[in-house]
Amino acid sequence: MQISSYLSWILALPLLAACASPGNQAEVLAQKLSADILASSSATLTLEKWCADHAIAAEPKIVARLVRAAVQPASSETLARLGVTQAEVKYRRVQLYCGTHLFSEADNWYVPRRLTPEMNRLLDETDTPFGKAVQALAPSRRTLSRTTLHSPTALFEHAAVLYSASQQPIAEVRETYQRGVLAFL
């Protein structure tokens, strides 16, 4: 367990103990998961660990279901952060599941030429989440925003830029975390 993840869990314990209602407990757990993701280099691996720690599925594996019909051009801000033109960016929208539980909906604008051919193949042809496909690049995340959502289905949203180990931007993501992460309650 990463020290930051461990510390966020320790800090959350008194809040969890103080929560009398399931609604408060859900809010505290959502805040803890958000903090864990913000402290990690891979949202996918953090979600997989969350799935395993809370026994949400028999096989605690995060699977990306591609939303193939989706097309969304990158904003001028995204292009500037990635240092590319619209023609150099590819868009991928996925729903991340653990078992039958929807954990996240993610929009991802990435630069294929900054990835290996095998990484691009995985992203184009398989249900491999982006974070797992690019793991060999030792990516890190720089958070752009974190928003709490007051929705019947969504808990919070993160936007971040992913960098390779050489600090080259490889993608920008917008992840909307769903109530499925709390399926164990």
Characteristics:
single chain; 185 residues; alpha+beta; Chorismate lyase; six-stranded antiparallel β-sheet; 6 helices
Summarize the structure.
This protein is an alpha+beta fold. It contains six helices and six strands; from the N terminus they run αααβαββααβββ.
Description of the molecule:
- The chain has about 180 residues and is of the alpha+beta class.
- It has one domain: Chorismate lyase.
- The protein is built from six helices and six strands.
- Helix 1 runs antiparallel to helix 2.
- It is globular.
- It starts with a helix and ends in a 7-residue tail after the last strand.
Query: Architecture, CATH level 2?
Result: 3-Layer(aba) Sandwich
pLDDT under 50 segments (min length 5)? 15-20
Assign the CATH superfamily.
Chorismate lyase-like
DSSP strand tally: 6
Distance between the termini: 23 Å
Order of helices and strands: HHHEHEEHHEEE
- Largest sheet: spatial strand order: 1-2-3-6-5-4
What profile does the largest beta sheet have? Answer: 6 strands, antiparallel
**CATH topology descriptor:** Chorismate lyase
CATH class label: Alpha Beta
Work out the strand percent: 25-35%
Structural class: alpha+beta
Helicity, as a percent range: 25-40%
Number of domains: 1
Helix and strand topology:
Elements: H1 3-18, H2 22-39, H3 43-53, E1 62-66, H4 76-82, E2 90-98, E3 101-110, H5 117-125, H6 130-133, E4 140-148, E5 154-163, E6 169-178
Helix pairs in contact: 1-2, 2-3
